[in-house]
Amino acid sequence: MPKRAAPAKRQRRERGSLNPEDIIQGAFELAEVVSIDGLSMPMLGRHLDVGVTSIYWYFRKKDDLLNAMTDRALSRYAFAAPFVEADHWRETLRNHARTMRETFLGNPILADLILIRSALSRDAARQGAQGIERAIATLVKAGFTVDAAFDLYSAINLHVRGSVVLQRLYDKNKEIEAGASAYYDDITIEPETTPLLAEAMAKGRRSGAPDDHNFEYGLDCILDHAGRLLDPGN
């Protein structure tokens, strides 16, 4: 595993000047270098130039700190994805999905905190539910039934998150093991035995890869199906 660059050394902190905001900000700075998985309380103490007991005074365990970081990340990126508009539900929902994916792919820490971790704080879970509620309400206003609106946004959400998580896990594996590859890169293509695969993949397609082409194709399928629900005769 390639050695990461050490975080920048801070100036020595005055006694009693530490506060939760400083700890959270320092944790984000450190995670940029060592990742969420590599972040530890002793390491954070050294980064902040304080004793680790000063951090435990505010955050009793790492999960408490990660919850606080998740809440901060959600508040920072809550409005990154544009709202869905009832009058233009298809175009705005597509833009919403694309922006969510781009935001997560562009910020690995955000992806790890919100998508990879198995638990969210109560505040984070509440924010997530409120965002979904707004999207479903807009789709109902556009003419979908509650069930159809729920299923549509759930499918979009799953499509975005699944694509991001698959890419993120691939990236994390490459960080751990130099030269690591994903299953979709290791498919053996032989024109004699798999001519159709060979034809498609010669054009740059990758089976099951979380790339732009596959993401857009899946998004089109979801939106096309949703359109037929509103206009069955089309």
UniProtKB/TrEMBL annotation:
Residues 40-59 bind DNA. Keywords: DNA-binding, Transcription, Transcription regulation. It comes from the Bacteria. Residues 17-77 form the HTH tetR-type domain. PANTHER family: HTH-TYPE TRANSCRIPTIONAL REGULATOR RUTR (PTHR30055), HTH-TYPE TRANSCRIPTIONAL REPRESSOR FATR (PTHR30055:SF207). This is TetR/AcrR family transcriptional regulator C-terminal domain-containing protein. It comes from Skermania pinensis.
